[in-house]
């Protein structure tokens, strides 16, 4: 019998993320080693167009700092106003998407499909989006 998607291995590590790697592509973009098509930048984050868009609008938002996951991000910043910055960032990164609809996606850990060990959020929009996950 096949396992359902929500079944967890008995000894699964819930923090199955790679350690931060300062040579990852997003760290290199932040250092200016790799160019990006920026849509917004402040002292806390950088937002830019994905080079392989999966929707009409596909923006990546990355924090400025060595953060691998949301747990790591919240622990280092102590919560607080970082949540307020995240909400404001969306409005500045892609004006108009807030009223027309959008999707946020953050992959965390191996089971979550995280490929780059730097916290990042995908913002999808610009038109009707399909189903969340293919079955």
Task: Explain what you see.
With 135 residues, this protein is of the alpha+beta class. It has a single domain, classed as HIT-like (HIT family, subunit A). It is 22% helix and 19% strand. It is built from four helices and five strands. It has helices spanning 25-30, 70-77, 82-93, 97-100, and strands spanning 38-41, 45-49, 57-63, 102-105, 121-125. Strands 1-2-3-5-4 form a five-stranded antiparallel sheet. A hairpin with a 3-residue loop joins β1 and β2 (45-49).
Q: Could you give the topology of this structure?
A:
Layout: H1 25-30, E1 38-41, E2 45-49, E3 57-63, H2 70-77, H3 82-93, H4 97-100, E4 102-105, E5 121-125
Antiparallel strand pairs: 1-2, 2-3, 3-5, 4-5
Q: What best-fitting shape do the alpha-carbon axes yield?
A: globular
Overall pLDDT score: 78
The assigned CATH architecture is 2-Layer Sandwich
Strand content: 15-25%
Please trace the helix and strand order, writing H or E for each element.
HEEEHHHEE
Unreliable spans are: 1-14
